[in-house]
Design a protein that fits this description.
Distance between the termini: 110 Å
């Protein structure tokens, strides 16, 4: 009779431990899902920002933008035709 009682107690303990494992796994799953949603939102925000930066880069590298920056920031000017020297090999 006592071995049956010990076996029942052992099985009950295993059932309790198993149920605690299920509860922990479910909790961890929900926590990780929430973290995944936050990371996906951040990824989407960064993809949007990346697209905007690519558009900005394309705008800034046009010929007119480069020439304007050369004039304003570097003080460059187009030389007079008399100042241009052609060098031939």
């Amino acid at each position: 009779m006592s071995s049956s009682w010990v076996l029942n107690l052992l099985l009950a303990a295993l059932v309790v431990l198993s149920s605690l494992g299920v509860v922990y796994a479910k909790h961890e799953s929900r926590r990780l899902f929430g973290e995944l949603q936050v990371l996906e939102a951040e990824r989407d925000r960064m993809n949007t920002e990346w697209g905007q930066l690519q558009l900005e880069q394309g705008t800034l590298t046009t010929h007119g933008q480069v020439e304007r920056a050369a004039r304003t920031r570097l003080g460059m000017v187009i030389p007079d035709p008399g100042q241009v020297v052609m060098v031939r090999p």
